[in-house]
Amino acid sequence: MEIVILFKCFIISILLHIIDDFVLQPICLSKLKQKSFWVKHEDYCEKYKNDYRMALLIHSISWSIIIMLPLLFISSDILLIAVCLFFNTVIHYITDDYKANKFKINLIQDQTIHLFQIILTYSLF
Length: 125
Description:
mainly alpha
């Protein structure tokens, strides 16, 4: 794949990352990703105990697809795209859970991990 095209797609993916993590992710979704949001709700019961995980998964899938959109158009390696989508989703899910629920990392670390994901993804292509 031509390096100039790949670099342009990489830059677009960085922009898409910022858009998805800070613009397209509404405040309600960022709250839904927090287990504490559900627990504090007055009608909280056992059936809601894992709902924050679905919000984390939805955002992680969305983010992974968004940052890989340019690659979907320029690469014909479907297997590599599928593997990258899977691993980016898993890593994003774990990272956001560590930030929003486990309080093990801060926003700077969260964003550094996401940028590293993009760099790693593009280095595979």
